[in-house]
């Protein structure tokens, strides 16, 4: 009977403040959708780092005539010397495998990479440097190769591909942090809206609350229906946000991006359902419970 009365009071409060409840649902939905998107983006960045960093190569570019190297263009002797160093006891323990790419091979790869781009028409094989492509056992130890080979005869530069990946991931992280910032502002707005809704609901029932206190009802018994109102509205918004995030993953990420870019392992439906959705539900419920409890507690103290 006691629980029935509490649920009845909560339902009455929701019916009396339908417009405010809808506002809470919408603000919670939008803010938690940003939260879910940011979480998914961080998960995607983590997967991409694991995949691409393990496959990132170190490129040892040999000198061309136009590079202005002290010894001029790389010779067969300087190329053989670099190959010998890569096989030496000092560097071999760090290297998983390596291969040499001459100008013809490099030019064919360049044409394939920039197929359909006008820049390919102005590049000749003589403009493509010869290079050693090296896979390390531990990509984080690329500094060993850089320090050893940078000053070698015929070597123009030693480039760790992870430096390019870092630039890409920094852009993705910036987008993720932007989403988190917007989500944080929206969550603050949702918390304030929930608190305002609860205080208005309490104010409209102030006579009933006074009677309940006169007959000995505890503060907890009085507060619970109001907290349930906020939690119910936020729960609906959380569920809608979870559905929206799953739809984004299912339709856009897995249904479109995964088909267009097959070289990337994208987040899947299970990540949205079993990782992100519980987070959104938990955040929504906790946010609403805390906001509602704070609002009604302050009202009861007046």
From TrEMBL:
<feature type="transmembrane region" description="Helical">
    <location>
        <begin position="171"/>
        <end position="195"/>
    </location>
</feature>
<feature type="domain" description="ABC3 transporter permease C-terminal">
    <location>
        <begin position="182"/>
        <end position="301"/>
    </location>
</feature>
<dbReference type="GO" id="GO:0005886">
    <property type="term" value="C:plasma membrane"/>
</dbReference>
<keyword id="KW-0472">Membrane</keyword>
<comment type="similarity">
    <text>Belongs to the ABC-4 integral membrane protein family. FtsX subfamily.</text>
</comment>
<dbReference type="GO" id="GO:0051301">
    <property type="term" value="P:cell division"/>
</dbReference>
<feature type="transmembrane region" description="Helical">
    <location>
        <begin position="273"/>
        <end position="296"/>
    </location>
</feature>
<feature type="domain" description="FtsX extracellular">
    <location>
        <begin position="57"/>
        <end position="158"/>
    </location>
</feature>
<dbReference type="InterPro" id="IPR004513">
    <property type="entry name" value="FtsX"/>
</dbReference>
<dbReference type="InterPro" id="IPR003838">
    <property type="entry name" value="ABC3_permease_C"/>
</dbReference>
<feature type="transmembrane region" description="Helical">
    <location>
        <begin position="231"/>
        <end position="253"/>
    </location>
</feature>
<keyword id="KW-0812">Transmembrane</keyword>
<dbReference type="Pfam" id="PF18075">
    <property type="entry name" value="FtsX_ECD"/>
</dbReference>
<comment type="subunit">
    <text>Forms a membrane-associated complex with FtsE.</text>
</comment>
<keyword id="KW-1133">Transmembrane helix</keyword>
<protein>
    <recommendedName>
        <fullName>Cell division protein FtsX</fullName>
    </recommendedName>
</protein>
<dbReference type="Pfam" id="PF02687">
    <property type="entry name" value="FtsX"/>
</dbReference>
<comment type="function">
    <text>Part of the ABC transporter FtsEX involved in cellular division.</text>
</comment>
<keyword id="KW-0131">Cell cycle</keyword>
<dbReference type="InterPro" id="IPR040690">
    <property type="entry name" value="FtsX_ECD"/>
</dbReference>
<keyword id="KW-1003">Cell membrane</keyword>
<dbReference type="InterPro" id="IPR047929">
    <property type="entry name" value="FtsX_actino"/>
</dbReference>
<keyword id="KW-0132">Cell division</keyword>
<feature type="transmembrane region" description="Helical">
    <location>
        <begin position="20"/>
        <end position="41"/>
    </location>
</feature>
